[in-house]
């Protein structure tokens, strides 16, 4: 049973809990959906809500308008309130706690009063190459293109007028949290994608703040970086209360009341770790959606900075190596939608769950090497493989066995192709050891298929729990529940203890071991994938 299967019949006390305002809300602004999950103290989902949206390419920059953020959040909360009424026959008027999560990194500059100075620039933008390289050299760390500090330096170097007016710099999660509480704060996991975190795990690195201040052109600015970055908080800390204005931002009907305690806002990587309980050394998680990232909690430092690996933290502040890819399931979704339309033309409507089950299941029957069929899912550029501008591409080796099964197997391999390239740097070159990788995201809802592909690709056992399809909204709701518990008279232990004792003690996991034939076939496929990357780069250069 997934969390979405919970009903008022399953939880007879849920209506009273909701009416008394004892539920915890997690809201996550993902790349294609805004999702809400409402949970009890044990993490059982009582209701959900969702809103579909898409980014826009405006003035050569990927963005979401802040008006779309507001209306999307409100539509998602309205959908959640409808689900509460339908399942439990009560109105959602009060919350015990809530937390906001969103896609990490990017650039959202505000003035001193919190008004936006420029359009939100998302993680998909790759025009910060020179700024990221300058910072990486100055800091002696790998600074990814999508990090907020790279975007800021890019704006400084470009002479953008708004830079001198900068009063606050935040992420999308931090922006929405500020609208709800009036506080400019971030959870340490999200903050670690803005600027490097100190070894203490609870603040920005003071030496690197000084190095930034010493860069050419920075000293002349009328602000210091330490003053414009959000305050760093760790999991469990009080991040403020929902204000009357914040309640109206979520629910303009006035039904939802202020007062709920809030958790530190987090990025989708951190909530993915929480949703899979992957917050201890020798564990990791893979979050798969429009983009994909693998998070591995480290036992010891890496040998040094690597371009493929980002250093971030768990929501509790522990060091994490992150492999991020700009592309994952987006192209696969497009292909499956095409097959769904074909079925409609034949007079058969196939629901999405059935469609994915049938077609991904067919992919599982393909040859282990996908028969020489190569798929590049690059809706945007991909830094892990050195592709500056992506074009989705399917190519076949001359002797390829082009069957439906091999095509779909190649699509599954392609969804994780760039991730597999990046993980080689971590697992093989750096020798990081993993006992298990936890996986979550919609692609894993079809039991065993993408899970086995990933296990073979990483040569690591992959575990999927009953929260696999819930994603970060559920993880953020758990962080909100942890914050409420910490603030209560009973107090709370560490985040790890809370998850182990209160949330996951009764959860069932399905773990798949890597298959010898599957590993060999994937290795052969990945070798061809690497060799043909010049074709993908040429596609980006020659196709609009």
UniProtKB/TrEMBL annotation:
Residue span, Carbohydrate kinase FGGY C-terminal domain: 285-483
Any one Gene Ontology BP term: D-xylose metabolic process
InterPro entries: ATPase_NBD, FGGY_C, FGGY_Carb_Kinase, FGGY_N
GO molecular function: kinase activity
Coiled coil, from the record: none
Domain Carbohydrate kinase FGGY N-terminal: from-to ranges: 25-248
Pfam families: FGGY_C, FGGY_N
Keywords, ordered alphabetically: Carbohydrate metabolism, Kinase, Transferase, Xylose metabolism
Family, similarity comment: Belongs to the FGGY kinase family.
Protein name stated in the entry: ATPase
């Amino acid at each position: 049973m997934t969390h979405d299967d919970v009903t008022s019949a399953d939880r007879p006390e849920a209506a009273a809990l909701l009416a008394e305002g004892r539920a915890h809300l997690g809201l996550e602004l993902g790349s294609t959906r805004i999702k809400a999950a409402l949970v009890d103290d044990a993490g059982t989902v009582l209701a959900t809500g969702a809103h579909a949206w898409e980014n826009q390419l405006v003035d050569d920059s990927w963005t979401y308008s802040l008006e779309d953020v507001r209306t999307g959040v409100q539509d998602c909360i309205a959908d959640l309130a409808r689900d509460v009424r339908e399942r439990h026959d009560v109105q959602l008027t009060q919350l015990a706690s809530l937390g906001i999560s969103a896609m990490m990194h990017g650039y959202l500059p505000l003035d001193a009063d919190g008004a936006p100075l420029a359009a939100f620039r998302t993680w998909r933008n790759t025009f910060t190459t020179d700024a990221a390289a300058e910072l990486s050299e100055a800091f002696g760390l790998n600074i990814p293109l999508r990090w907020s500090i790279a975007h800021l330096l890019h704006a400084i170097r470009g002479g953008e007028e708004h830079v001198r007016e900068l009063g606050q710099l935040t992420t999308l999660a931090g922006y929405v949290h500020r609208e709800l509480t009036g506080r400019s704060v971030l959870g340490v996991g999200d903050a670690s994608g803005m600027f490097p975190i100190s070894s203490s795990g609870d603040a920005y690195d003071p030496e690197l703040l000084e190095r930034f201040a010493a860069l050419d052109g920075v000293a002349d600015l009328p602000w210091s970086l330490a003053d414009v970055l959000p305050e760093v908080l760790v999991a469990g800390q009080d991040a403020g209360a929902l204000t009357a204005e914040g309640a109206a931002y979520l629910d303009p009907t006035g039904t939802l009341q202020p007062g709920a305690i809030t958790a530190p806002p987090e990025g989708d990587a951190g909530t993915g770790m929480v949703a899979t309980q992957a917050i201890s050394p020798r564990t990791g998680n893979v979050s798969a959606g429009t983009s994909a990232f693998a998070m591995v909690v480290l036992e010891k430092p890496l040998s040094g900075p690597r371009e493929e690996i980002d250093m971030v933290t768990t929501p509790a502040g522990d060091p994490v190596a992150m492999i991020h890819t700009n592309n994952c399931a987006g192209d696969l979704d497009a292909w499956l939608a095409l097959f769904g339309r074909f079925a409609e033309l034949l007079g058969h409507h196939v629901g999405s769950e059935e469609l994915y089950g049938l077609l991904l299941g067919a992919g599982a029957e393909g040859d282990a090497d996908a028969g020489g069929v190569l798929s590049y899912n690059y809706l945007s550029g991909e830094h892990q493989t050195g592709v500056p501008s992506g074009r989705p591409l399917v190519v076949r080796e001359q002797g390829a066995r082009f069957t439906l099964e091999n095509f779909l197997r190649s699509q599954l391999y392609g969804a994780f192709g760039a991730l597999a390239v990046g993980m080689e740097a971590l697992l093989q070159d750096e020798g990081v050891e993993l006992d298990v990788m936890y996986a979550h995201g919609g692609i894993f809802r079809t039991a065993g298929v993408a899970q086995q592909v990933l296990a073979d690709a990483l040569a690591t056992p992959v575990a999927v729990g009953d929260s696999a399809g819930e994603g970060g909204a559920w993880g953020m709701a758990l962080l909100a529940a942890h914050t409420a518990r910490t603030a209560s008279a009973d107090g709370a232990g560490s985040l790890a203890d809370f998850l182990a004792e209160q949330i996951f003690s009764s959860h069932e996991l399905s773990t798949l071991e890597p298959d010898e034939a599957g590993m060999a076939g994937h290795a052969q496929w990945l070798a061809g994938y690497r060799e043909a990357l010049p074709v993908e780069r040429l596609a980006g250069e020659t196709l609009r």
